């Protein structure tokens, strides 16, 4: 079993110039496996601008830079992959669009069926969640989904949704490969450096208990 790793989500709204130093602090605080740029209700040009400013920071740390929702811009702008909701876009089209070299992640919420189909159709990883309260949806995924996936499939799984240093341990114990975290880092009272360190400490403590 590989140790659980940290997958950072950006806030859904940000000024890339102001966010850049916060991102650098987060990435310098400890090992991060991937950063997903997740912008809502902005123009293509604003997404391109954010990619141009933030992608080099992430890739210079030898970390994967993933773009949410827009595989076309991910390919165009030199990202390492894209993350989609399979309900929005046929996964076969996205896989063809990205080619074989870029990563493809798929949101599967609390659905075993969607997850299995995503894996069969070319996803490089899937996400389950939210596991904790989220303002984006009323869905609440059960922790045993992670255990089931870990036992059934080799494709990596990411746990997402309201995850903090205080509540993440059951997800790590259940076998998730990654914890997808946003607010617990960017809204941490000690800043993003302390936010990352707190999550990584909780992961390490749980890994030591396995």
Automatic annotation (TrEMBL):
One of its GO terms (cellular component) is cytoplasm. Keywords: Magnesium, Metal-binding, Thiamine biosynthesis, Transferase. Mg(2+) binds at residues 69, 88. It is an enzyme of class 2 (transferase). Residues 6-184 form the Thiamine phosphate synthase/TenI domain. Binds 1 Mg(2+) ion per subunit. The keyword 4Fe-4S does not apply. Its EC number is 2.5.1.3. GO terms for biological process: thiamine biosynthetic process; thiamine diphosphate biosynthetic process. Pathway: Cofactor biosynthesis; thiamine diphosphate biosynthesis; thiamine phosphate from 4-amino-2-methyl-5-diphosphomethylpyrimidine and 4-methyl-5-(2-phosphoethyl)-thiazole: step 1/1. 2-[(2R,5Z)-2-carboxy-4-methylthiazol-5(2H)-ylidene]ethyl phosphate binds at residue 162. InterPro entries: Aldolase_TIM (IPR013785), ThiamineP_synth_sf (IPR036206), ThiamineP_synth_TenI (IPR022998), TMP_synthase (IPR034291). Pfam families: TMP-TENI. GO terms for molecular function: magnesium ion binding; thiamine-phosphate diphosphorylase activity. Gene3D superfamilies: Aldolase class I. Condenses 4-methyl-5-(beta-hydroxyethyl)thiazole monophosphate (THZ-P) and 2-methyl-4-amino-5-hydroxymethyl pyrimidine pyrophosphate (HMP-PP) to form thiamine monophosphate (TMP). Belongs to the thiamine-phosphate synthase family. This is Thiamine-phosphate synthase. It comes from Commensalibacter intestini A911.
């Amino acid at each position: 079993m590989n140790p659980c790793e940290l997958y950072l989500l950006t806030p859904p709204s940000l000024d890339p110039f102001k966010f850049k130093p916060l991102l650098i602090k987060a990435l310098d605080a400890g090992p991060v496996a991937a950063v997903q740029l997740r912008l809502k209700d902005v123009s293509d040009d604003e997404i391109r601008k954010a990619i141009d400013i933030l992608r080099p920071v992430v890739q210079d740390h030898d970390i994967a830079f993933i773009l949410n929702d827009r595989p076309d811009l991910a390919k165009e702008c030199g990202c390492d992959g894209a993350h989609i909701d399979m309900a929005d876009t046929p996964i076969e089209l996205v896989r063809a669009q990205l080619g074989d070299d870029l990563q493809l992640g798929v949101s599967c919420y609390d659905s075993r069926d969607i997850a299995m189909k995503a894996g069969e159709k070319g996803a490089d990883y899937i996400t389950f969640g939210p596991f904790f309260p989220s303002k984006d949806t009323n869905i609440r995924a059960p922790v045993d989904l992670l255990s089931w996936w870990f036992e059934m499939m080799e494709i990596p799984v990411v746990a997402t949704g309201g995850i903090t240093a205080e509540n993440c341990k059951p997800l790590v114990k259940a076998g998730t490969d990654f914890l997808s975290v946003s607010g617990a880092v960017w809204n941490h009272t000690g800043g993003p450096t302390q936010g990352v360190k707190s999550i990584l400490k909780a992961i390490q403590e749980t890994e030591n208990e396995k």
